[in-house]
Amino acid sequence: MLVGAITIAVFSSILTQSTIATIPRPDNIIYQPDLSAFEGITGKGFLGFTPIRSQLQNTDWQLNSITIGSTTQATTQPITLRFTADSIGGFAGCNEYSAAYGASRNRIKIGGIATTEKMCSPSQMQLEQSFLAKLETVQRYEIINHAQNVKLFFQQGNQTGVLTFRRERVTF
Known about the structure:
By secondary structure, this protein is mainly beta. The chain has 2 domains: 7-52; 59-167, Lipocalin, CATH 2.40.128.270. The chain is 11% helix and 47% strand. The protein has 2 helices and 13 strands; from the N terminus they run βαβββββββββαβββ. The protein has helices spanning 17-21, 122-135; strands at residues 7-10, 28-31, 36-39, 50-52, 59-68, 71-74, 80-83, 87-91, 96-104, 107-115, 138-144, 149-156, 159-167. Strands 5, 6, 7, 8, 9, 10, 11, 12 and 13 form a 9-stranded antiparallel sheet that branches. The longest helix is centred in the last third of the chain and has 14 residues, at 122-135. The N and C termini lie far apart (42 Å).
């Protein structure tokens, strides 16, 4: 457990009075099982928590373009991205994919990408593999244009770039 003006991860499902008493005024507490985040401490001997909900949670997006360095390429294949409370998923050009993610402020970490195993044309497979490799190296995000676009910033080796998505309207 890290302490001070930093984030503390709690791996127990219950915060007891004795556990709380040992925490010296953290700025953030993250409850690991559902990645819920809480901020702040108020009062004497009491913890006052305010939940933080990711701006990405429960949103759907379609990939518009991939930028590497100063070169931007519009996408011609439908590639989608859906954020839930603790996972992402979508269509990667040939296969469906899913992964876990965690987000705090404008930082994001995506890991453990799994896909279905359908075979497609070589160009579709290449696009999909490229997209998923970039997605796995995303480090931060920005929501722009009145929440109509999201930019995911990646660093793949010495290559930096941006995956730009537009909000997708989903009807259930």
